[in-house]
Amino acid sequence: MDRPVRNPVAILALLSLALLLGACQPPPALPGESADQDQPALSGDGRLLAMVVDQAGRPSVRLVERSTGRSLPLGPLNRGQPHRSPSLSWNGRYLALIRQRGERSEAVLFDRALGRLLPLPLPRDRLPEKLSLAPDARRLAVQSLRDGRSSIDLLELSGIEPDLPAGVPLR
Questions:
Q1: Where are the chain's structural domains?
Q2: For 134-155, how does the pLDDT look when each residue is reduced to its tens digit (9 = 90+)?
Q3: What is the pTM of this model?
Q4: Which of 55, 107, 153, 162 is placed for a possible disulfide with 128 were both Cys, Cβ 3.0 to 4.6 Å?
C-alpha cells in the first residue's frame, strides 16, 4: 500500500509560496480610477505604498496602507494634477511628488501629520522630472531639466521635523 510522502520542508515551501502570492495582490481600484498603477514608492518601514493611478483621465497619486489595502486621504494633493514621481519618508509622514501648476511642474512636500503642502525650492529655470526623498525627509534629490539638459540637485529641507524610525533619538 503506497502512502503519500509528507515532506515538512516541501509543505512549508508551498505554504510560503501561497502566502507570498497572496501578498502580491494589487490594491483594488477606487471608483473613477483605472486599474493602471505606475511609479511605486514604499515607505521606509514598508507600511505604506504610494503610486500614480489614472483617475478620471488624470495621473493622480494614491497612498495605500498595505496591511488593509485602505486608501489614505491626501487632502490638498487632490488639486494640481497630474502627479508623478512620488517618494515617501520612513514612516510615511512626508510624501514628496511633482504636480502640475498651470503650465509649470513643481516639486512639493505634503506633511500628512499637519495636512500641510509645502512647495520645494527649485531655481525658476529648472523643471523637476523625478524625486527621491531621504528617509528622514531632511534631504531631497531632484532630477530636473534646464535648457534641455538633465541634472541632479540635492536639497537640504531645513525646518522639517525629521521622520525617524521608532526609537531613534533626534540628533
A1: 34-156
A2: 999 999 999 998 888 999 999 9
A3: 0.78
A4: 107
Specify the amino acid at residue 99. R
Task: For residue 132, give the nearest of 166, 171, 85 by alpha carbon.
Answer: 85
Task: Give the DSSP letter string of the chain.
Answer: -------HHHHHHHHHHHHHHHHTPPPPPPTTEEEEEEEEEE-TTS-EEEEEEEETTEEEEEEEETTTTEEEP-GGGGSS--EEEEEE-SSSSEEEEEEEETTEEEEEEEETTTTEEEE----TT-EEEEEEE-TTSSEEEEEEEETTEEEEEEEE-TTPPP---TTPPP-
